[in-house]
Request: fold
Amino acid sequence: MSHSQSPPGGEEPSKGSGTMDFGLKGRHAVVTGGTRGIGRAITLALLDQGASVTVCHRQESAEADALRAEFAARDAGALLVRADVSREADARLLLDRAHETFGPVDVLVNNAGIITHLPLAELAEDEWARVVDTNLGGAYRMIRASLDRLARPASIVNITSAVAEHGMPNAAHYVASKAGIIGLTRALCKELGPEGIRVNAVTCGVIDGTGQKNPRGEEGKRRYAEMTALGRLGEPAEVADAVLFLASDAARYVTGAVLGVDGGI
Reply:
């Protein structure tokens, strides 16, 4: 969807955090699934704030190459590691590489996720397991592997979806995994809080420019835009701004929160 002009009843999207200083200079963040869409926007926003960033990607791609080029052009304190969060050994590898390169991790952003669209009758057990184990299991593995690599205090931000609360047909495995992330967030905020580790979640609405194909095409995007209070789809940078807030000391008394970035869908 083009945002060159506001949709009827909607408003023009803001330009993002811009020059706003979230006090993250010199801190170290790890972002999973950071080569495209929301993950890429979070990665670049953290770099703009002066943080060092370690990013993981599951496989080589044009997006990974483009991010490497971006890092080189910025001469940024950034590291791209190939790791699959559905594997315990890869989660440990990622955290070890991050710690060796930039030291303790101040911010962990669990963004990696996958989705397929299948009715329940066609949803085989292996596909259920694949999606749940990547989305929910990946966040579990990363947090568990990070416990001896996190700074104290630290901030963990889990990226989930508004469908966790509203539901969506033909994606029971995806919805269940995203709802599980909210439960994981609320459980771990209580368990890890005494150590100074805050755990929060961001629930995304329909975000444009993520590379994710809408099963209903452009008509589907228009329909979702009309379902929001703001009359438009979101942008990856708008999710990144919420992550910057939760990562920063501005949110130092915020934990166990589920922050909706969904345009009032």
In short: The two ends are 17 Å apart (CA to CA). Residues 1-9 have pLDDT under 50 and may be disordered. The CA atoms of residues 29 and 107 lie 4 Å apart.
